[in-house]
Amino acid sequence: xxxxxxxxxxxxxxxxxxxxxxxxxxxxxxxxxxxxxxxxxxxxxxxxxxxxxxxxxxxxxxxxxxxxxxxxxxxxxxxxxxxxxxxxxxxxxxxxxxxxxxxxxxxxxxxxxxxxxxxxxxxxxxxxxxxxxxxxxxxxxxxxxxxxxxxxxxxxxxxxxxxxxxxxxxxxxxxxxxxxxxxxxxxxxxxxxxxxxxxxxxxxxxxxxxxxxxxxxxxxxxxxxxxxxxxxxxxxxxxxxxxxxxxxxxxxxxxxxxxxxxxxxxxxxxxxxxxxxxxxxxxxxxxxxxxxxxxxxxxxxxxxxxxxxxxxx
Length: 313
Description:
Blueprint: H1 2-15, E1 46-53, E2 56-63, E3 74-80, H2 87-94, E4 102-106, E5 109-110, E6 118-119, H3 132-146, E7 149-159, H4 161-172, E8 179-183, E9 203-208, H5 227-237, E10 242-243, E11 247-249, E12 253-259, E13 267-272, H6 297-306
Parallel strand pairs: 3-4, 3-7, 7-8, 8-9, 9-13
Antiparallel strand pairs: 1-2, 2-4, 5-6, 10-12, 11-12, 12-13
């Protein structure tokens, strides 16, 4: 049955972008301290904000969905840009701001080498001494204090270097993120070393088999694992017992799923045949190579996110 639902989701995303209805938490689900507070901006807008973390002034683009109402708790998605991009740039191509959720697009700190571009912790070119895990904790604390957030439905996604950072967050902040969904992830060794998450973490991964920037088969010289190894490692961490038969969606999507995981977790990998270093279904330029329009990553991950929330204590 779950396989049929997954196929239906993928095919629906391929055919048309259907408006998505708001999904609110029930009255007894965990609501943040900011419920009932005046919103920091108008619903339906995206605004750049600042906060101080680790002695640095940091910035993030915040989008409030149409109809945002502080009397109801909303899901929160945190989306991390790729190396050299920005939160606003990621918002522009990802379509995440069309979802019925609060979306935060944080900005990294300028790293080292090759043009000194913004980057995230865990990559060899990230800025020395910057603690982006702490920044993420501070960001979540601030958003939950100012907005009405369902603390059981906080999710992370990202592109490339930002996607690799979501792997680090899954290892270290499993108590704050209900699920992660990296896209074209650069999973350098430091994003997964000594990874002992406090709970099984649901993972949805997207990657193109023709990605020339972060090769699907890995890159030994840079310490990048193959995507099959990376998702397999998460299936092992989540104590998944069953790998279902691959599902092929014409013309270019192959979906792999691991089920029977501990505590209701799930690991899913979406391989885009000949796909480049891109965001599936992107509205504009998201990286080099072929961008599939067979699926839209934001719609597929929204379906996945809605099936997972943090367990109650």
